């Protein structure tokens, strides 16, 4: 039986933070627009900021659908599944915002992710999500899957890039500055990288 929660704390927070991956879902306002669903992983790239707010690091990739949809309408759903242990699915429905590298809030947000080399993955933005509805469901049909390790392919691909070459990479991809549906995506040229604020 599903439950609705007022905040992300206690066992709910522990469950979310223990998962090795989660999924994000967004869509444009247009009725015929492209719905986007993305898997997210990499240990240390997700953080609970407070009882109503979570954030994750948006790394280099060949498109920017989530960013484009959030810039247009802000709607987002995050979902975690229990692939080990007791069955459970948690969804956070809310409003999201991409905070880019030239935003004054960026260094402070980045300080919430001390366990990951953000420069080695071509960091584009921090996605901040304010929860409006928090629910869990049974997850009885989700299979058992074993976590072995994070893949190192993403870091190996992007750790050799500097800000200039990374910006050129993004500029060369068809659906980074503009989404599949023609919405504004990642603002280019890419601003210089910054370091986290001290905590």
Give a written overview of the molecule.
With 199 residues, the protein is of the alpha+beta class. It has one domain (3-143, 151-171): Roll (Pnp Oxidase, Chain A), CATH 2.30.110. 19% of the residues lie in helices and 28% in strands. It has 5 helices and 8 strands, in the order E-H-E-E-E-E-H-E-E-H-E-H-H. Strands 1, 2, 3, 4, 5, 6, 7 and 8 form an 8-stranded antiparallel β-sheet that branches. A hairpin with a 7-residue loop joins strand 6 and strand 7. It is globular, with a radius of gyration of 17 Å. It starts with a strand and ends in a 28-residue tail after the last helix. The model has no long low-confidence stretch (mean pLDDT 96).
List the helices and strands and how they pair.
Blueprint lengths: L2 E3 L4 H9 L3 E5 L9 E5 L5 E5 L2 E6 L6 H8 L2 E7 L7 E12 L5 H5 L14 E13 L15 H6 L4 H9 L28
Antiparallel strand pairs: 1-8, 2-3, 2-6, 4-5, 5-8, 6-7, 7-8
Major beta-sheet overview: 8 strands, antiparallel
CATH architecture: Roll
> If you consult CATH, what is the topology?
Pnp Oxidase, Chain A
- How much β-strand is present in the residues? 25-35%
Structural class: alpha+beta
| CATH class placement | Mainly Beta
Fourth-tier CATH superfamily name: Electron Transport, Fmn-binding Protein, Chain A
Number of helices: 5
Bulk shape:
globular
Radius of gyration (Å): 17 Å
Q: Count all strands and give the number.
A: 8
Helix content: 10-25%
Contiguous uncertain segments of 5+ residues:
none
- Write down the domain tally: 1
Distance between the termini: 40 Å
Order of H and E elements: EHEEEEHEEHEHH
């Amino acid at each position: 039986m599903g439950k609705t929660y007022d905040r992300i704390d206690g066992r709910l927070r522990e469950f979310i933070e223990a998962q090795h991956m989660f999924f994000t879902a967004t869509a444009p306002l247009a009725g015929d627009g492209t719905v986007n669903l993305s898997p997210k992983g990499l240990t240390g790239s997700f953080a609970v900021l407070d009882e109503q707010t979570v954030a994750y690091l948006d790394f280099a990739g060949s498109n920017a659908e989530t960013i484009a949809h959030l810039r247009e309408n802000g709607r987002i759903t995050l979902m975690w599944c229990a692939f080990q242990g007791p069955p459970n699915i948690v969804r956070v429905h809310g409003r999201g915002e991409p905070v880019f590298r030239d935003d004054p809030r960026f260094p402070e947000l980045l300080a919430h992710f001390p366990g990951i080399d953000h420069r080695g993955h071509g960091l584009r933005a921090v996605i901040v999500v304010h929860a409006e509805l928090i629910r869990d469901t049974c997850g009885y049909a989700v299979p058992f899957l074993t976590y072995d390790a994070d893949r190192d392919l993403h870091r190996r691909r992007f750790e050799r890039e500097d800000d200039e070459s990374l910006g050129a990479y993004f500029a060369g991809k068809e659906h980074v500055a503009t989404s599949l549906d023609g919405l504004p995506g990642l603002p280019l040229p890419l601003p210089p990288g910054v370091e986290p604020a001290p905590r």
